[in-house]
Model the fold of this input.
Amino acid sequence: MMNVTLTRRYSFAASHRLHSAQLSEAENQRLYGKCNNPYGHGHNYVVEVTLAGPVDPATGMIANLAELDAYVQKNVLEDFDHRYMNEEVPVFAKQVPTTENLCIEIFNRLRSFPGARLARVRIEETARNSFEYSGDGAGGAKR
Amino acid sequence: MVTITRKIEFSASHLYHNDAFSAEENRRVFGKCNNPHGHGHNYTLEVTIAGTPDPTTGMVLDLVELKELLEREVMQRMDHRFLNHEVEELKGMIPTCENIAAVIWKLLAPKIRQGKLHRVRLYESPDLFVDCSESAWGEAMA
Done:
């Protein structure tokens, strides 16, 4: 039995500050270190979006890439690129914008992509740090 | 279990066109990939074999054997070819990254003599790749 997935890479630039309202200033400083610096800092984020089959015999494709690009552009890149996530992405008013939480947020934004089943979101925060989220077990919206 | 991955690159051209679609539909579905004379890519193929190292050789499989297999099955068949017209196994299929990766999986899987084919990853560009595997993700493909 063979499974096929398709992965597309996107990138955006954004800033964030890691700071938890549930912790004291000293605890925030100890836990997050320079990621807690008060004015935030930025990264070039790389987002890998993985879709699972089946492959449509008429097109040879799991999903139409132009449709996927447009969906990611509208639902993710427009809201995140060149933004300060703590202030400009509503979910991060309450959550700490770690890349763990960012994976979950982006997965949730893409899970209803109508063209194919979302299997995974993987984010590279830097060339040395990457994070993955494959959903809560349901694996995203079914086709 | 240990996996071993070998990477090769090949260059080939293709175009996307379904005879059952109208010219307009082909254009709409496939965009510039439908341009009539085709276009090319530098493909990168990563082939991953899983197995247990042989106690005598310390190897999952003989890399020279894998190298020769990839040369014979992939390079000779696809490198510097127009995939629509020159690759028998792709006849009647749209030569998308999905289908090419699946064809490569089917060509290689029965010919791995030590270990087992674990994953075929085919990059069409650095920002687009397809994985074929037997793992939990994805749907079965005929």
User: Anything to note?
Assistant: The longest strand of chain B covers residues 2-14. Residues 63-78 of chain B form the longest helix (16 residues). Residues 136-142 of chain B have pLDDT under 50 and may be disordered. Chain B touches chain A at residues 16, 18, 20-21, 29-31, 93-99, 101-102, 105-106, 126-141 (CB under 8 Å).
